[in-house]
Amino acid sequence: MSKVLIIGSGGAGLVSALSAHEKGAEVIVASKTLPTRSQTSMAQGGMNAVLSSDDAIENHIEDTLRSSAGLGDESQITFMCERAPEAIRWCNTIGLPFSRDDGGEIARRRLGGASAPRACYAQDYTGLKLLHTLYDQCLKAGIEFKNGRFLLNLIVDHETNRVLGGTFLDIETGDVEEIRADTVILATGGYGALYGKHSTNSVQATGDGLAAAVRAGAKLADMEFIQFHPTALKGSSILISESARGAGGYLLNAENERFTDELAPRDIVARAIHDEIDKGGTVYLDIRHLGEAFINHTLPQERKLTQLYEGIDPVHELIPIKPAAHYSMGGIEVNADCMSSVNGLFAVGECANHKTHGANRLGGNSLLELVVFGRHGGAKAAEYGTKNPIPSSDNPQLAKDTNFVRGVMYFTNQIDFYQKQEMLANIFYNNVGLVRDDMGLKAVLGAIRQMQKELPFMGPRDKSKVCNTNLVEFIEFGNKVELAEIIVVSAISRVESRGAHYRLDAPVRNDRMFGAHTITWKEDGVLCADFIQ
Amino acid sequence: MEIVILRGEESQVYNVEIENITLLSVLNHIKTKIDPSLTYSHGCRSGVCGSCAVRVNGREQLMCEYKPSDGDVIEPIRNARVIRDLVVDTSSIEYFNLRASAWSEGSREGCVSEEEASRIETQTDCILCGSCYSACPVYAVNPEFIGPFALTRVWRYVNDVREEKSDGKMATVQTNGIWDCTLCGACVPVCPQGIAPMQDIRMLRTKSAMLGYPDPTMNFGGGFDLGGWDF
């Protein structure tokens, strides 16, 4: 029986846990939070699948490919779309309470970029209800959870390029521990929290798994592609689901006029909004004409949050919005079996780049991806571990990381990292956001390099060993800085515009030069980048 | 504005000059600008991750959905071991859901009417924030009480028309379960999602009676057992 360590307990982590367990593996899920507190809880719109003859799987494939702007892999997309109906059935079998249509079938709605209504949903709580259903199933299966474990590093035997486990900070006790396993699945989510208050994401989406992966020698792919959701609340970046537009909501500019096709793919709508805001105006989402009853039934969260954060009731008033960082298309480079360039290290969900979203993700495809590839990756990891059990070998990683956690307490604290973190978020939103150019990107790179040098002069000011969230947030900041450099170098290298990556100084797509994936990795601590088909 | 936060045995007063923002934003301001040692849990800031439940002036609130006023007193939620400041041990969530077998035993395919689907709509909105658990007075006398969130979850599966084998769940909630609730209703107003665990427990009691389980609250101290008569 192989032992599979899953790091991260959102949708992708829990699906892969169930899948590896079904294959007979011993499964441990280690995660920095309680499973039901992960980013997946925030997904609202739905999960795409073709369920009836009025739509066709070919159309789902075609829509996804088109939106991916040349960076989607047709075989991976086909794999995902063909398994979508089965994924929905599986979710239903484990109890996900889908909303239903008049005929009693699983209800579907149309999201942006889709040629038919095919997002299956559970009110505007699709992610929440999926996540809790999965958690319940994991308890039923007897999956072992280690909550409150913050990933520090992966343990790798560099001679054989083989992962052996991971090291973790036990947040409650402050101790550093290692968990060894035959295979490791990273399911740690995206890096949207880098954009701070300009992101719809949970504050937990700090990309810890990606940073650990790149330190372990894994390759990342297409890190410059970050999706901006067109409609976040202007003041707080709280997400207003795309289903508000799917149901007929309008976008209005400062002159109260519609200015774009509300249901175009997200990159196009977000840039149209950005251009209106750039002209100096406020942009609004108008759902008043949908009526109070409809809003209460279909968009209850949106109404509540808009009232709370903007002091506005969308039943009667316009909602001021802005685009905000929402989804990380970039991620750990994985093969068709979800395995990274490090042997035995798998990645699933948002932290991975399954090449299904390419340069721009379609709404409703991320929950689908985490179910399809979570199942696939979990099974493959269990299988790989059975065939290739890890040798018991000495490894210095635990000692190194124990020393690091002890040593970081002595960092000098002349510079406040919270202030730097806010600055990083602001310059990222302004210069590595919806619209980019060489000069702006290079200025950000300069600021990041400076921050890297300054890290030893920052550090946690709280010296408690027990439950030190100041320490955790400092290490998260370190991970953000690690990824920030990679994102910006990728964005500088890609001198063209494609999907979510829009260069003002190179506004045209250039397939001849850049019709390839931006692959990044570190060699002896030095960042390398290349374009690879 | 003065905010009082219970930190271990002591209370600490923070003075913040910001108005009309959520309590979570106030705490983020304190942590990043004033006192980095202040410790609390948070995540989505939009009321779905269930991380940030605390007590404000003795009542459970999600920090991301509550706007504080001058003099508010913030404490960790109750019935859970405090780890530090406002962070509590959450292991009871796994423990009680496990004890209650709060999961699907297999859900059938096929049509479900909108009306049937809507029966479990509210219960499946649960975010496991622990507010109901904190407000429940039964834990003072019975720490093994399966409790409001886990019993709501059981009712959610029992009442799901797709569930094929849910009757077996009724056995797991007979002891330390539905009959230990005092129906005081303290769990109802504190739920940020508008769930009424007490109502769900009542429904479980009715279902339990229908399946032939005895109702221990209907025990008349001896009943017809003649040995109980004392002449």
UniProtKB/TrEMBL annotation, chain A:
Pfam families in the cross-refs: FAD_binding_2, Succ_DH_flav_C
Fumarate reductase/succinate dehydrogenase flavoprotein-like C-terminal domain sequence ranges: 423-523
GO cellular component, one term: plasma membrane
Residue positions of the active site: R266
InterPro entries linked: FAD-dep_OxRdtase_2_FAD-bd, FAD/NAD-bd_sf, Fum_R/Succ_DH_flav-like_C_sf, Fum_Rdtase/Succ_DH_flav-like_C, SdhA/FrdA/AprA, Succ_DH/fumarate_Rdtase_cat_sf
Record flagged with keyword Oxidoreductase: yes
Gene Ontology molecular function, alphabetical: electron transfer activity; flavin adenine dinucleotide binding; succinate dehydrogenase activity
Keywords: Flavoprotein, Oxidoreductase
Protein name: Succinate dehydrogenase
The organism of origin for this protein: Sulfuricurvum kujiense
Classification lineage: Bacteria, Pseudomonadati, Campylobacterota, Epsilonproteobacteria, Campylobacterales
From TrEMBL, chain B:
Domain of life per record: Bacteria
Keywords, sorted A to Z: 2Fe-2S, 3Fe-4S, 4Fe-4S, Iron, Iron-sulfur, Metal-binding, Oxidoreductase, Tricarboxylic acid cycle
Chain ranges of the 4Fe-4S ferredoxin-type domain: 116-146, 171-201
Domain 2Fe-2S ferredoxin-type: 1-80
Needed co-factor(s): [2Fe-2S] cluster; [4Fe-4S] cluster; [3Fe-4S] cluster
Pathway linked to the protein: Carbohydrate metabolism; tricarboxylic acid cycle; fumarate from succinate (bacterial route): step 1/1
EC number: 1.3.5.1
Reactions that this protein is recorded to catalyse: a menaquinone + succinate = a menaquinol + fumarate
Pfam families: Fer2_3, Fer4_8
Gene Ontology biological process: respiratory electron transport chain; tricarboxylic acid cycle
Cofactor: how bound: Binds 1 [2Fe-2S] cluster.
One Gene Ontology MF term: electron transfer activity
PANTHER family: SUCCINATE DEHYDROGENASE [UBIQUINONE] IRON-SULFUR SUBUNIT, MITOCHONDRIAL, SUCCINATE DEHYDROGENASE IRON-SULFUR PROTEIN
Family the UniProt entry places it in: Belongs to the succinate dehydrogenase/fumarate reductase iron-sulfur protein family.
Protein name: Fumarate reductase iron-sulfur subunit
Native source species: Sulfuricurvum kujiense
Lineage: Bacteria, Pseudomonadati, Campylobacterota, Epsilonproteobacteria, Campylobacterales
